[in-house]
UniProtKB/TrEMBL annotation:
Signal peptide: none annotated. GO terms for molecular function: hydrolase activity. This is NUDIX hydrolase. Pfam families: NUDIX, Zn_ribbon_Nudix. SUPFAM superfamilies: Nudix. PANTHER family: NUDIX HYDROLASE 23 (PTHR43222), NUDIX HYDROLASE 23, CHLOROPLASTIC (PTHR43222:SF2). Its cofactor is Mg(2+). Keywords: Hydrolase, Magnesium. It comes from Desulfobacca acetoxidans (strain ATCC 700848 / DSM 11109 / ASRB2).
Amino acid sequence: MVISVMPFRNELYKFCPQCGGRLEKKIVHPKEPPRLVCGDCGFVFYLDPKLAGIAIIPWEGGLVLARRGIEPGYGLWVAPGGFVDVGERVEDAIVREVQEEVWLNVRITRLLNVYSYTGRTTVIVAYVAEVISGQPGGGDETLEARVFQPAEIPWEKIAFTSTRDALRDYLALR
């Protein structure tokens, strides 16, 4: 089961991670939203977004997409990518995730765009990457990988808005 924690759902956190005291909603700085503050030690518990990266991979005249083998979006298509681990460079995370998901070794060539959406917990950094070696295949979390020509992209079966936006941005630049 995947649990999504939205930044505005402060009620999910009740206790301070430092001392165990009760968290209360308070205004810490004027013009900012209420924050969760420990009533005992004063620790401010900021609810920060998660960072993910995706790769737009042109190959053989098309673009590599992965069909998800996990929720959310089971069976739908995405640009390969995933979450960045603490201490990991975004570019390194994308190279790692592409290898895990679609069995391709890639090199990042340029930043495409950064995507964030109101009410969402994840910020997505999209890069363009070139294939160094490998053949597309399905990894641990992927049912299959496939190269789609631009006219064949299954827009109605794209799992995430960020993949849709990144594909459109990339195709508009060609």
